Amino acid sequence: MDLTMIGIICIALLLLLIFLSVPVGIAFIISGVISTILIFDIERAISLLMGAAFSSIAAPSWTAIPLFILLGALAVQADLARRAFKSADAITSGMPGSVGITTCFACAGFGAISGASIAATSIFGKMALPEMRRLGYGKEFASGLIASAGTFASMIPPSMMFIIYALFTNTSIAELFFAGIIPGILTAVVYAIFIYVKSKRDKVLVERQKAEPKLNGKERLSALFSAWPIVLVAIVILGGIYTGLFTPTEAAAAGCVLILAVGIFEGRFRKLSDVNGALRESANTTSMVFLINIGALFYAKVLVLSRLPQDFTVYLTNLDVPPFVIVLIICLVFFLLGMIMVPIGIYAMILPIVIPIITSLGYDPIWFGVIALKLTEIGAVTPPVGLNVYALKGVVTKDISVVDIFKGIWPFVILDVIILSFLIAFPQITLWVPNLLFD
């Protein structure tokens, strides 16, 4: 059978298995094994799978992933999400839409030590949504805001998805981290402006907020200072990576030690059982992520064997269209897959095909890493999958349905598409910080 046809069968099998609700990691392995058997035989298929499994576990770079997962879990146990919210509220208190704006910046702040969008969505769904509803926010607007703002944690460094992108594309984790800073902050600011304008036009919400007690200067300073552990951890991680003192893996370990030290100092971690929850959650999440990684790496190797990525690269680069049109086609594919697949699955399926195209067209893979992550952020809230939406549904009251949340996300999806357009049109927005620091 023609190798290219086997590559097409490999992709079709994966999509079919995902449609049948087979877990993503297992779907990668099954479709990859069947395709490899069509190319070679079952013995070589198993050998290739074992090699992918070993490289997923044995490669030192992959150890950064469980450490960053543990970092986020410890941050939750240390109650740093609440402190991020309290600190952001000190800045926005008294403004129209202050709780919504606070949620945006608190998600960005929490993202600086967690990198997990689903965790951020769940935590701030419990913390901010009741307060929004009390102040008169509509359930669709409030829930859509939180589901969308939770995606900041993926873009603001340190980001687990940037690590996975770097490992799939052999790019610099440090450069990707710093490339995500401006796009992440820009998204938070644009969301905040939209919330401010929308809330200012809502007379009921404005009147309710006027009745709320205002923070005085001393209370604002106290709330701002309460976020010092978040600032300290972010400085140690990013500063350590930038100065070369730490590798990303060592930076994650240093962040974990710092949060443990802060928790012990403040009395939150008095005995080993106080961190059991974080350790258990990290182990469960790491197991799931590594199963997907094993399947994804195996699947990527099978695609390379089929020569589909190479053939597709030659086809697209020979098209008589401007390069940006090809980039837009690739972005559309990411967007559509984001509606039905988890981000790791998309990276494994698409990056082996598109990265050679992106580099052959002269685009920077660091820039494209931010574009790809922005597209998966949008996919995290768009139906039918929308992982952040379902994560939020798990913590909200029964009167808020999945449909309500999906209705509420669309204004923020439109804002994300506008921001994405600027990032594509002006790559320097993304590349300015890494170029400044590393060139």
TrEMBL record:
Residues that span the membrane, as ranges: 6-39, 51-78, 98-124, 145-168, 174-197, 223-245, 251-269, 290-309, 321-337, 344-363, 409-433
Membrane topology: Multi-pass membrane protein
Record domain TRAP C4-dicarboxylate transport system permease DctM subunit: where: 12-429
Localization per record: Cell inner membrane
Pfam families: DctM
Family annotation (InterPro entries): DctM (IPR010656), TRAP_DctM (IPR004681)
Keyword field: Cell inner membrane, Cell membrane, Membrane, Transmembrane, Transmembrane helix
Protein's UniProt name: TRAP transporter large permease
